[in-house]
Amino acid sequence: MHLNLTYPMKQEKAYLLLNRQLIDIIANSERILNGNDSSEELESFARYSNELKRYVDERIEDEAFRKACNEIPTIHYELTQIHFWQYLLLPAWWISLFIDYQARKVIKTKVKIAQEKYRRLHILAQNQLN
Questions:
Q1: Superkingdom of the source (predicted)?
Q2: CA 87 – CA 94 distance, rounded (Å)
Q3: Residue 70 lies in a domain
């Protein structure tokens, strides 16, 4: 059973706000999948995705909608910090870049899956508004 411990919000308003957020996150995922996959973009998408999932859990009463949202993969990405000493040791620098490259590939796969699921949620949200 879901307990809504936050202030009550009319479902129509919650879906209106959610609809706009879904449009934004779908646009963000498009940018990432079309090549703008900078560390900042990936970190921003991961943070926004997690906040959006929390919003749905707290504000949307429809159990099926919340379940569909919880199927979206959780994305964790933190900006890779390359320290000064890593520049001095060339192999350590290359290893850091390779690890970041591998992490980006995995995250882009998760972003593609998340994008498809966010598109479905967007359709569901629009149906709730009609």
A1: Bacteria
A2: 9
A3: yes
**Is 103 part of a structural domain of the chain?**
yes
Other CB atoms closer than 10 Å to residue 6's CB: what's the count? Answer: 10
Residue 92 counted as domain residue: yes
* pTM exceeds 0.85: no
Range of the domain at 93: 11-129
Quick check: is 111 in a domain?
A: yes
- Average pLDDT, whole number, for the chain? 85
pLDDT tens, position by position, 69-111? 999 999 887 766 666 655 566 666 677 778 888 888 999 999 9
Nearest partner of 52 among 25, 79, 31, judged by Cα: 25
